[in-house]
Each structure stands twice: as structure tokens, then as C-alpha cells.
């Protein structure tokens, strides 16, 4: 757990592209271009590639994804959807099948992209984007 916290702190500290900027977590000189709690967040071009976030385009139902794409929270199981350049965590119901899972959600549609690698990093970014405190300034 300690290693995860240290890694998360390191990753979040690298998301600001220039030190000394205003305290806003999103903007043209930051890795996070915009963030809206209802719509999701947009990463600057190249950030997803730099952090090796891979996606899968959803085709016809049923949707089978690698289990590593799932993010578990106390409330639910989620995947990260990319639609119109915005990442958003989406609650899903699952049926496990070996190393994969069948997922269902009313918030997903054919053509949406789902993060299949890097989902946990996206969760850290989402938590930071919508928290009340600036990353790196938690006391």
C-alpha cells in the first residue's frame, strides 16, 4: 500500500507540466486540459500515450473486456470510458469469465473506448481532479 501511495504521489506530481502555475488543476499548460464532474476529464494530447493507457473500442454486445480494465471501489466496479476526448469512470455490472469479464452499463454504447490498461492511473487522476485540495499540497 505504501508503494502505491508513493507511486500515486509521483504520478500526480508529474501531471503538472510546469511548476509555479495557478492552483487550477486543468488548463492549457497542464496535462489535464479540462475537468467536469458530470462529463469527465480531458487529458492533453500525448499524456495517455506517455502513461501507456491502452483502449478497446466496444463493438456489439455482450462486451468482454480484460479483468485488468476493472477498477474496484467501495461503492461499485468501474471502467474508464473515453468518449469525445473525455475520460469518465462508469459503474458496471460484471460476469467474470476467467481473465475477462462481461460488462453491462446503460452509460456505455457501441463505439465507446474503454481503458484496458492504465485504469488505476485514470482513477488517481480523476480523484485528484475532483478533490478539494491541490495535488502535492496535502498536509
Task: Describe the structure concisely.
The chain is of the alpha+beta class.
Explain how this protein is built.
By secondary structure, the chain is α+β, with helices and mostly antiparallel strands. 21% of the residues lie in helices and 35% in strands. A hairpin with a 2-residue loop joins strand 6 and strand 7. The N terminus is likely disordered.
Secondary-structure blueprint:
Blueprint: H1 2-15, E1 32-36, E2 40-43, H2 47-50, E3 54-57, E4 63-66, E5 71-72, E6 77-83, E7 86-97, E8 100-104, E9 113-117, H3 119-129
Antiparallel strand pairs: 1-2, 3-9, 4-8, 5-6, 6-7, 6-9, 7-8
Give the mean pLDDT: 82
Instruction: Name the CATH architecture.
Output: Beta Barrel
Residue ranges: pLDDT <50 for 5 or more in a row?
1-10, 13-23
CATH fold description: conserved putative lor/sdh protein from methanococcus maripaludis s2 fold
Distance between the termini: 19 Å
Indicate the CATH class: Mainly Beta
Tell me the radius of gyration: 15 Å
**Beta strand %:** 25-35%
Order of helices and strands: HEEHEEEEEEEH
The overall number of domains is 1
Tell me how many strands there are.
Answer: 9
**Secondary-structure class:** alpha+beta
Taken from the alpha-carbon principal axes, the silhouette is globular
Q: Estimate percent helicity.
A: 10-25%
- Give me the oligomer status: single chain
Q: Total helix count?
A: 3
| Major pleated sheet | 7 strands, antiparallel
Record keyword descriptors for this entry:
alpha+beta, single chain, about 140 residues, globular, conserved putative lor/sdh protein from methanococcus maripaludis s2 fold, two-stranded antiparallel sheet
